Amino acid sequence: MRNYRIIALLLAVICLSGSLVACGGAGGGETTPAVTDPADTTVPEETEPPVTEERPDLPENLDYDDYEFMILSAGNVAYKDFGFTEEAGTVVEAAQHQRQLMAEEKLGIVIHEDVQVSKSYGNGTGYNKIRSAVVANEQIYDLGIIAGYDVTELASGNYLFDLNSLPNVNTQKSWWDQNANNDLAVNGLLFFTNGELSGARAEATFVIYYNKAIGETKGLTAPYQLVEDGKWTVDVLAEMARTVSEDLNGDDVIDTSDRFGIYVWKDAILGMIAAAGSKCATIQEDGTIALTLYNDNSLAMFEKFTSIAYDKNYACQYQNFSGFDVKKAWVNDQALFWATSTINTALMRSMDSDFGILPFPKLSEEQDRYYSTIGPFNSQFICAPLILDDEERTGAIIETLAYLGQTTLTPALYEKNLKGISVRDEDSAAMLDIIFDSYIYDVGYYYQIGNYNENIMNVFRAYGNHFTSMYNQFERSANLKLKLVNQNFAEVLDDWKK
Questions:
Q1: What are the beta bridge partners of residue 209?
Q2: What does the pLDDT read at residue 24?
Q3: Which of 73, 93, 363, 431 could form a disulfide with 88 if both were Cys (CB 3.0 to 4.6 A apart)?
Q4: Between helices 4-15 and 91-107, what is the axis angle to 10°?
Q5: Residues 303-322 pLDDT 10s
Q6: Any idea what the Cα angle at residue 335 is, between residues 38 and 9, rounded to 5°?
Q7: What is the DSSP code string of 204-228?
Q8: What is the reported pTM?
């Protein structure tokens, strides 16, 4: 059965005009201008949340006497979930407004969101604002939606509250991302996670776009059934990409003016390694974090993907070409595939040709599942500051917002926006189910262990094959950083056991 509530998280990105603020940087973030669809102004009727079997385990008749609930959204990309008005310009903004009104009325609160875009490499605005409040023993923010590079430093610095210990929050409920819980918990303590409270997760998800018009011209069938059958692999991606290459301007040279099998974002190499089930670093059962990047799967995926990504007759690493407008070229039907992230979905609305959305491929058919991941530079995670004036109140509000994100916001997103606007066929809807059910989270990249998040991309953008020597060069610094992180976490865990 298709899980449309997860699909709708992506649609928040597609339709949320003006609500996303993003900036590029060394981490490889791509930015997309806000897209406004004048026709997309239908406001969903205010209705009670749909009846579901699962509900929050909260006391009845909560009333917090107009308490002002403060949210901080901060990072290289800062997603806006709250603060929309009745004059919201899109259906998604209207749904966000409706959710906020429902939460405020139900709990007797007033919600404020502070959206801060700033460079985040572990000491950005999100880190500094929450850390400063904790050090001062003050509660300034009740909830954080904080960049991955910052939230990890907050966690190991003991500046965050364990969500599994927060009264009234049940992270086992369906509105919380269980893959995030599994990958990010340390000895049962969960200092940050993801879920349907925010649309930020969907903004940074790696996907592959497929130009159906080009595929049909070349006699190709969109590989939806291959995905469903577990046969969508990197070898199939490369084989299909090599069927497309065309000298459009007749100068006998394949360059950015021509048609390629695949456009490749430099960050995509991180998504491809993750798609093989590999992590830069992994939290072990004993709570320590271990370096796990160098393994057979990582090496095989790097070799297989670069075999097509480095083939300049069929692939274009477009960021290597100054002034090249990849978005314009994509809409102009100049590539069969585009390995990128969901931040670019909004621009598809201007395409005449139909497109499809695919997960990053498996390493081989023997792999038991697909793995989708988020770009470290663009990532944000849900967390609560360590200092809370009223833990039960904070937990009840957070759980309510997450629940309403699932029962009120996401159904509206699907019903009003999926059909025929941005995701143009049911097959792509099924692909999105797979993508958003298959997250893998890598603390190694968020902690910037060995700076591998950058160093892998440096090899990739230079068309290099020295993955092993690169790994060896930074292995010592990676282990030193892990030693420090593990020492810090040991102290944090001791504090929470007291």
A1: 338, 357
A2: 39
A3: 93
A4: 110
A5: 999 999 999 999 999 999 99
A6: 45
A7: TBEEEEEEHHHHHHTT---THHHHH
A8: 0.89
Tokens of 289: 């974090």
Cα distances from 348 to residues 59, 236, 267, in angstroms, run: 44, 24, 20
Contact 58, 10 (CB under 8 A): no
**Token reading at 26:** 């060394």
> In 311-428, which ranges are E strands?
315-316, 335-341, 355-358, 380-383
Strand 67-75 to strand 109-117: parallel, antiparallel, or no bridges (unpaired)?
A: parallel
Please state, as a whole number, how many other Cβ atoms lie within 10 Å of the Cβ of residue 360: 27
Contacts of 126 (CB under 8 A, 6+ apart): 72, 74, 75, 116, 120, 144, 146, 147, 150, 151, 154
Tokens 């699932």 correspond to 406
CB 79 within 8 A of CB 342: no
Handedness of CA 7, 355, 441, 119 (dihedral sign): negative
- In Å, how far are 28, 94, 204, 416 from 91, measured between CA atoms? 30, 5, 21, 7
Q: CA 357: distance to chain centroid?
A: 15
- How do residues 432-456 score in pLDDT, each as one tens digit? 889 989 999 999 999 999 999 999 9
